[in-house]
Structures are given as C-alpha cells and as structure tokens.
Amino acid sequence: MEEKEIEELEVEELDVDENKEKEEKQDKVEIVEHVESKYDDLKPRTEMADLSKEEKKEIKEKVIKGFERKEKKSESKEKNNTAVQVKLEKKKGNVGIIILIIIGIIISLYWLAWPIIKSSIHTQWKPIIYIYPTEDTDVTIKVSNPADLTTTYPKYNNEWKVKALTDGTLIDSNNRKYYALYWESENNKKNPIKEDGFVVKGEEVASFLEEKLEILGLNYKERNEFIMYWLPKLEGNKYNYIRFQTMAEINDDMGLDINPKPDTLIRVRMEYTGLDKKIKVKEQSLTKVERHGYTVVEWGGTNINR
Q1: Phi then psi for 228, rounded to 5 degrees?
Q2: Residues 210-226, mean pLDDT to the nearest whole number
Q3: Is the pLDDT of residue 142 over 60?
Q4: What span, in angstroms and rounded, lies between the C-alpha atoms of 200 and 239?
Q5: Percentage of residues in the chain with pLDDT exceeding 90?
Q6: pLDDT value at position 100?
Q7: Cβ neighbours, 10 Å, residue 114
Q8: Mean pLDDT (whole number) for 137-165
Q9: Are the beta carbons of 289 and 215 closer than 8 angstroms?
Q10: Of 57-71, 111-125, 201-215, 273-287, which gets the smallest average pLDDT?
Q11: CA 195 from centroid of its chain's CA atoms
Q12: Where are the domains of the chain?
C-alpha cells in the first residue's frame, strides 16, 4: 500500500474516533443535565463526566423510575384532590338541602300557626269620622298610635287637615271633597269577651243596632251606614256577643287629638264575635248621648280575640 493511502486511512480513523468521542460526551452531558435538573441529590456534574456505560444506564433507570414515582405521586395527589373536591361539593349540596328543609319547616309552622296569630290580631274595622262645625272651620286631627294604621282615606300624613263646612262636607288642601275621614288599624292587644254586653240573635241584629245606636248619639244617616256595613257580618251568625267600648277603652286603643276641640265628641266602637249557642253576660248599661254645638262623631268596630 502506498504511503499516501496509509495516511488517508489514518485520518479517517482519527475522524471516526473523534466523532465517537463527541457523541459519548454529548450523551454524558444530556444525562448529566437531565439528572441534575430533576434529581440534585445525585452525583455532581464533575463526577458525571467520568461515568461508564453501565453507570450511565443505571442512572438512567433510576431517573426513569424516579420520574415514574413522581408521576404516580402526582396522579395520586390529583385523585386525592378530586376526592376531597367531590366530598366538599357533596357537603355543600347537603347543606343546601338542609337549609331548604329548614325553610320548609318554618313556612309550614307559620301556616299552621296562622289561625292562632290571626285570632290574636285586634282589628279596627271602618272607623269613620264625621265633622259638624257650627261655622266653616279649619280642623286638624291626629291619632295617638299612627304606627298601627293600616288604611286611611284621605291619606293620613302625620295628621288630617281639612276645612269642615257646616253641612259636614270636608275639603282638603287639593280642594277635594269628602263626607268623612276613614281609617283602619291592627294591633295585638287582647280583646276577650267581657262580663257585660249583649247576646243577640242573628235575625234580630238590625233592630238591636237601630235602638242602641240612637241611644249612643248617632243620627239616622250615621246609623244607616253603620248597619249597612256591619249587618252582613252579624246576621248570618246564630248568636252574636256585642258590646260597646267605653270612651276610656277607645282612647286607650287610638286616641284622637282634635283641633279645635269639639263641643260634643261621640265615639262608638262595637266589639263582637259570632256564637253557636247563647251565653250568659250581664247586660251592658248605655248612657244616652245628646249632641250640641260643634260635633265630631266616629263609629267603627272590632273583633273579639277568643
């Protein structure tokens, strides 16, 4: 073989050796970088450069196994987190169901108790106020318990202020006319059957009221309106317990501050309840009322809390 050919072969062998050496170094570098990035507790970089193939293989296997263990731990952690999340969602759902059940129980109890609550409510039905001055007069009326008012007409706004004419016509600040002032109220004061009063058959209510209301000072028009309103509530009962409250009782429930003060103030408040059978009560004594001068009249009624 010629000398030139020998030199070319030697060069080729050197190139192959150099390439092989470069590849081995690159493999070492890659393994070192991978191991160092994931597992810092393994051998330092300076020692990794001198690893044999067997050692490199062993480290690779450790790296792979470690990575697999880490992935399994991660999956296990995700499963645990998912399980915890599911439990939390389940608890939230249970709490929501419990809240709905409690709300349902409260509503049910309320409706079961409503008849008792309703029976304890003391309602003033259709108190209506007429004003009859001897001359056209500006009149202001205030009630003592405005918080108990449920309905008023004209609108009660801290007071009623009207111009009252001698024929009973009332004129407000908007020049609107009324024949009376109307209000209703509710409170929880006890209002049981008293020792005195009257027991009246349903079919005898009209004649009873005509007689008693005249004694109490109502004129024919006021009596007619009273009976027209209350008769449907009373005549259908077999019996009715009826009593007319005293002025002190009426004022205690809802006082009236009237300016100017009338010469005659008539307040008729009937309390009643229907009865299935007759009961014994002492007959109430009524004093006849005479009207004179500037007069204010109010009538209304309230239910008995039994």
Answers
A1: -60, -35
A2: 98
A3: yes
A4: 5
A5: 54
A6: 76
A7: 10
A8: 97
A9: yes
A10: 111-125
A11: 41
A12: 3-51, 122-303
> Which pair of tokens denotes residue 143?
């009630």
pLDDT band at 25 (very low <50, low <70, confident <90, very high): low
Structure tokens belonging to residue 147 = 């918080």
The answer to whether the peptide bond before residue 154 is cis (omega within 30 degrees of 0) is yes
Per-residue pLDDT tens for 112-124? 544 544 444 456 6
Structure tokens at 271: 């309390």
Residue 23 Rama label (left phi>0; alpha psi -120 to 50; beta): alpha
Instruction: Copy the structure tokens of residue 50.
Output: 């001198």
Q: Cα 151 vs. chain centroid, distance in angstroms?
A: 22
Asked whether residue 171 carries a pLDDT value surpassing 60, the answer given is yes
Q: What is the pTM of this model?
A: 0.62
pLDDT digits (tens, 9 = 90+) for 190-199: 778 899 999 9
Distance CA 161, CA 154 (A): 10
Distances (CA, A) of 27 to 59, 67, 296: 13, 19, 114
Q: Print the SS3 string covering the chain.
A: CCHHHHHHHHHHHHHHHHHHHHHHHHHHHHHHHHHHHHCCCCCCHHHHCCCCHHHHHHHHHHHHHHHHHHHHHHHHHHHHHHHHHHHHHHHHHHHHHHHHHHHHHHHHHHHHHHHHHHHHCEEEEEEEEEEECCCCEEEEEEECCHHHEEEEECCCCCCEEEEECCCCCEECCCCCEECCEEEEEEECCCCCCCCEEEEEEHHHHHHHHHHHHHHCCCCHHHHHHHHHHHHHHHCCCCEEEEEECCHHHHHHHCCEEEECCCCEEEEEEEEEEEECCCCCCEECCCCCCCCCCCEEEEEEEEECCC
Distance CA 184, CA 75 (A): 72
